[in-house]
Design brief:
With 127 residues, the chain is of the alpha/beta class. It has helices at residues 2-15, 28-37, 51-64, 83-89, 115-126; strands at 23-25, 41-46, 73-78, 96-101, 104-110.
């Protein structure tokens, strides 16, 4: 019964279009909607073959699960396939995280694998 209730809540969250305070794969329509709404959003340019990206992933997940970041959406973009996005944001290296609020870029970081540094970066979107 608990599993069914939990599954129903997850389905309901996605059905209502709520991706706030979540980690999700990058989708252009979601990204554009978040930018237009002014909500805080971060885009993580990740590559499976990148050791720095693999080190960042659990840190980003842990940070965004904290209550402080409940309004932030973290979108994970595949560095190798999201070439148009990379060009539009002038991202030349994997392990780059770009942070937006009110539809504008606020900050970015490349290669940071420290919890403190990534927390500070993501915090810039919610303050």
């Amino acid at each position: 019964m608990r599993v069914m209730l939990g599954s129903l809540l997850v389905i309901l969250a996605f059905a209502t279009g709520s991706t706030f305070g979540a980690e999700a794969p990058f989708e252009a329509t979601t990204f554009q909607r978040l930018l237009a709404s002014g909500e805080p959003v971060a885009v993580d340019f990740h590559a499976d073959w990148c050791p720095i990206c693999r080190a960042q992933a659990p840190l980003l997940r842990s940070i965004t699960e904290k209550p402080e970041f409940h309004n932030l959406t973290l979108l994970t973009a595949n560095f190798d396939t999201e070439t148009a996005l990379r060009k539009s944001l002038n991202v030349s290296k994997q392990s780059t995280v770009v942070v937006f609020r009110h539809g504008k870029e606020l900050a970015r970081s490349t290669g940071d694998t420290t919890e403190a540094g990534l927390t500070q970066l993501l915090r810039s979107a919610i303050q």
